[in-house]
Amino acid sequence: MPSLSVKHTAHAAPRTVLVVDDEPTARMALAARLKRLGYRVIEAGDGKAGLEALRRERPDLTILDWMMPEMDGPSFCEQVRQDPELLSSQILMMTSQDQPEQIAEGLARGADDFLSKAASKYEITARVQAGMRTATLIRRLEDVTDQIRRKQEVLEQELQSAARYVESLIPASGIVVPGVQMVQAYRPSLALGGDLFNIVRWSDDFLGLYLLDASGHGVSPALRSASFATFLRRDSLLHHVGSNDPGAILTEANKQFPLTDNGHYFTIVFASLDLRRHTLSYATAGHNGALLHRRSGETCWMAKPNLPLGFDNSTTYVAEELPVALDDRLYLLSDGLYEVPDPTGELWGQVRLDETIRRFGDRPLAEVVSGTIAEAIRWQGHEQFPDDVALMGLEIAV
């Protein structure tokens, strides 16, 4: 029968075997045989020394005697399997008593394979090579897992960076112009989305405001929203649209932002508030998140069935107009606020959101905004929203 040997490339480091046996003669004989096969061999005379060598050297395979003083083979295996850093180590247990009950106990306590002390040199070689193959596969799996972990860390850093950038584009709560207060809340989900809102100040008595949502999650939709926000700046709108009419703005945006190759699109509500005429004109594109709460307690959802942006570049969006009065409040919100499920899967919904805002009545705007977010959290039973949540409230005091 031809001899079995281990082949190494000229540049590859030899595979390492740790031999743990308290019998010097048996240990040295096995070590000599393994060296002839081309392995690098480390020796230890007892279980404790072997465990230290395993932690220090991280061999590809450990060949371990069952019967040893202080720490026997099964106890050694248990120590290894309880250590997360050593958990994947391959252990070949040697025993002079290869009874089924003993083998079962050894496997149960952490050994991967068994080798009889009376085994032939051919069986020893075959068992060692089988253990090395398993060790190689595990190392490769660990390498792949480590690569995936590093990529996940990079992705998480990118998501956090993109989230910070998106939040930098969101206006701070406060007085927008004399007589108009704005309060906002933004709660990004774990998977970064594309919700974004802002105010366009046409003049001291004429404001534009919008809330947009890019389909999908991650860095890409967030950056697409940021690009769209650049288009929605006052100077850009005057250049590309030449008008502050919400319908004209969305009609032009529909041409500027077609569907992506992956089928992603935008939904948006854009409103213009004329403080001199006390009117609010608005246009929507696949977005239902605009609510006018009048001082009388009446609420009006500002929604009109139409396509999101990008589906048909010939679509024309037309603005609707509503009268507004002193102490009326306008809310722009993302669908992530009312499409939150409770533990049974039932959505909170627009009706409950409407009732919540009615119930708050004329309490301070900041209290209404924070309280509405809190009610949505209470409904779903936890703090983390499954989608981005944005809520912007404006109170008219002029």
Structural features, described:
The protein has 398 residues and is of the alpha+beta class. It has 2 domains: 16-144, Rossmann fold (3-Layer(aba) Sandwich); 169-396, 4-Layer Sandwich (Phosphatase 2c, domain 1). Helices cover 38% and strands 24% of the residues. Strands 6-7-16-15-12-13 form a 6-stranded antiparallel sheet. Strand 8 and strand 9 (206-214) form a beta hairpin.
Annotation keywords:
398 residues; 11 helices; disordered N terminus; 2 domains; single chain; Phosphatase 2c, domain 1; six-stranded antiparallel β-sheet
Task: Summarize it.
This protein has about 400 residues and is an alpha+beta fold.
Ordered list of secondary-structure elements with their pairings:
Layout lengths: L15 E5 L3 H13 L3 E5 L2 H11 L3 E5 L7 H9 L9 E5 L4 H9 L4 E4 L4 H48 L5 E4 L2 E8 L6 E10 L2 E9 L4 H13 L2 H7 L5 H11 L9 E9 L4 E7 L4 E4 L5 E3 L18 E4 L5 E5 L1 H4 L10 H12 L4 H16 L8 E8 L2
Parallel strand pairs: 1-2, 1-3, 3-4, 4-5
Antiparallel strand pairs: 6-7, 7-16, 8-9, 9-10, 10-11, 11-14, 12-13, 12-15, 15-16
Helix pairs in contact: 2-3, 5-6, 10-11
The biggest sheet, with number of strands, parallel, antiparallel or mixed sense and barrel status, is:
6 strands, antiparallel
- The chain-level mean pLDDT equals 88
Structural class: alpha+beta
- Would you identify the CATH architecture of the largest domain? 4-Layer Sandwich
Q: What order do the helices and strands follow? A: EHEHEHEHEHEEEEHHHEEEEEEHHHE
Multimerization status? single chain
Corresponding CATH superfamily of the largest domain: PPM-type phosphatase domain
Helix content: 25-40%
